[in-house]
Amino acid sequence: MQNQTIPERLYTVSEVLRLLNIPRHRLVYLFDCRKLRVEEFPILPNGHKVFRESDLEKIKKALFEVSSK
Questions:
Q1: Residue 20's closest CA among 65, 69, 64, 60?
Q2: Domains in the chain, ordered, with CATH?
């Protein structure tokens, strides 16, 4: 039996917003204030940002940091 890795699921921006139950401007703010860096997230050839499962944790952490100020 070969050791196969299951690829990590990718989420679109709208899926992330729905999963985290946040408005779009909150996610945009995290990128604008550099709590999240665009370079850290994969971008599809068509220019769309996608997020991995592990990225959701980064976003949650950044949201918590901003809200606790």
A1: 60
A2: 10-62 (1.10.1660.10)
H/E segment holding residue 56: helix 53-67
pLDDT-based confidence at residue 2 (cuts at 50, 70, 90) = low
DSSP state of 6: P
First-to-last C-alpha distance (Å) of the chain = 51
Of 37, 36, 41, which is closest to residue 63 (Cα–Cα)? 36
Q: Do 57 and 21 form a contact (C-beta atoms < 8 A)? A: no
25-53 per-position pLDDT tens digit: 999 999 999 999 999 999 999 999 999 99
